[in-house]
Amino acid sequence: MTLEAAYWIALGAGLGFLVLALLLGDVFDLFDIELGGSDLAAGPIFFATVAAFGAGGLLGIKAFEFGTGGSIYVGLGTGLSMGALTGLLFSALRRQEAGDGFELAKLIGARGRCSVAIHPGQVGRVIVPYGGMSRSLSARSSDEIAVGDEVVVKDVVGNTITVSRADATSNA
After folding, report:
1. CA gyration radius, the chain
2. Virtual CA dihedral for 80, 86, 88, 91, nearest 10 degrees?
């Protein structure tokens, strides 16, 4: 097998597996590396590096008319630089992903106002400001809570929060 054929194989295999990794997503997760609290998609980075090595080697042989050593250096340089660039791009994409969604449990201890009266054993509604937004939530309480009363979130049961009157909480 000639060096040129090896470069063509590296280019074809790298591109083929790169396309598969991008289309099928989690198939190559076994290559992922935990780095700084986030996963580094090592599979696509490796495949891009292999493809760029093949392309760089071909470039060294065909365009620059280098010999074996020169084409290997061009292939290595191209492969490593394109692998690093791919890593940076995947890292930037990872940072753009949405964070964790809103969880009702984060509201425990938060204050809000009753918007629909809450009678003991029945469901009313409260408005709780959190994360720059006002959230209107179904709420239960063991106390009678009138519209406009300030409340404190005590617990979360399913999609309903349990609240108590804020002045009752501050006295306790």
Report:
1. 29
2. -140
Rounded Cα gap, residues 164 and 154, in angstroms: 7
Select the CATH number that applies to the domain covering 104-171 from these four: 3.40.50.620, 2.40.50.140, 3.40.1410.10, 3.40.50.12780: 2.40.50.140
Please report the sign of the dihedral spanned by the C-alpha atoms of residue 22, residue 24, residue 27, residue 29: positive
- Closest residue by Cα to residue 85 from 54, 60, 49: 49
Residue 119 tokens, joined: 């009678």
Residue 153's nearest CA partner among 139, 171, 167 is 139
pLDDT tens, residue by residue, 2-21: 999 999 999 999 999 888 88
Q: What's the predicted TM-score (pTM) here?
A: 0.54
What beta strand segments (E) does the chain contain?
33-35, 38-40, 111-116, 124-130, 133-140, 150-157, 160-165
What are the boundaries of each domain within the chain?
A: 3-95, 104-171
Distance CA 1, CA 12 (A): 16
Torsions phi, psi of 101, nearest 5?
Answer: -70, 175
